Amino acid sequence: AQKVTQAQTEISVVEKEDVTLDCVYETRDTTYYLFWYKQPPSGELVFLIRRNSFDEQNEISGRYSWNFQKSTSSFNFTITASQVVDSAVYFCALSGKYGNKLVFGAGTILRVKS
Amino acid sequence: DAGVIQSPRHEVTEMGQEVTLRCKPISGHDYLFWYRQTMMRGLELLIYFNNNVPIDDSGMPEDRFSAKMPNASFSTLKIQPSEPRDSAVYFCASSRGRWDNQPQHFGDGTRLSIL
């Protein structure tokens, strides 16, 4: 069975601080895909990144970066110099090789205070 | 390009009434997913379609729930009869392709309240 664990229920930081959101996954598949989604207070789900299991390169997109480590089954998300607009719920998700069926973590609430 | 379009955005109805949620996927996407989000259970996949055919409905909670996809550009999720515990946000999502798991793109959701 596939499982995603986001142990941090809620994180509060002050603007301009760096923050890392943890994601640990479980799967028996050798080919799988990992995703991060953002859910701002307005409620929609916004796709941030997709990573396949064969690509362990870290990725940086502006203030966002992702660290994928198969050895620890982790796919962590770091926001550098956080801003109030980053306040949202962030979900990590996992899918197997076939069918695009996503399993979501419980989400981490990020609060960035000015 | 237009994203996934869901209607209505909000629905308030009384217990026992029939509820129909609607979804228009992104053009060209061949997968369509229905999710439910609650505080207690988080985001749950209810059912998904590939090329308009239901593939996995194991997440549908009860026979009161049904979903259809009569064509590539429209899907419905129906609850009949509705109960207060069905109150949740229902999301529709679509994606393209199968072999490389393209990301799912979500609609804005329907916030359903059953009184």
Structure, described:
The complex is a heterodimer of chains A (114) and B (115). Chain A is mainly beta and 114 residues long. Chain A has no helices and 12 strands. In chain A, strands 2, 5, 6, 10, 11 and 12 form a 6-stranded mixed sheet that branches. The mean pLDDT of chain A is 93. In chain B, a hairpin with a 2-residue loop joins β5 and β6 (53-56). Chain B starts with a strand and ends with a strand. Classes of the chains: A mainly beta (114), B mainly beta (115). Chain A binds chain B through residues 33, 35, 37, 43-47, 50, 52, 91, 95, 97-107, and chain B through 31, 33, 42-43, 45, 48, 50, 55-56, 89, 91, 93, 95, 98, 100-109, 111.
Summarize it.
By secondary structure, chain A is mostly beta strands. Chain A has no helices and twelve strands.
In whole angstroms, the N-to-C terminal distance of chain B is 37 Å
Mean pLDDT of chain B: 94
Largest sheet of chain B: 7 strands, mixed
**Unreliable runs of chain A:** none
Task: Specify Rg of chain B, calculated over alpha carbons.
Answer: 13 Å
**H-E order of chain B:** EEEEEEEEEEE
User: How many beta-strand elements of chain B?
Assistant: 11
SS-derived structural category of chain B: mainly beta
Beginning-to-end CA distance, first to last residue of chain A: 41 Å
Helix content of chain B: under 10%
Roughly what fraction of the amino acids of chain A lie in strands? Answer: over 45%
Strand content of chain B: over 45%
Large-scale geometry of chain B: globular
Q: Kindly report the oligomeric state of this protein.
A: heterodimer
**Poorly predicted ranges of chain B (pLDDT <50, ≥5 residues)?**
none
Q: What's the total number of strands of chain A?
A: 12
Count of individual helical segments of chain A: 0
> Could you estimate the helical fraction of the residues of chain A in percent?
under 10%
Helix/strand order of chain A, N-terminal first:
EEEEEEEEEEEE
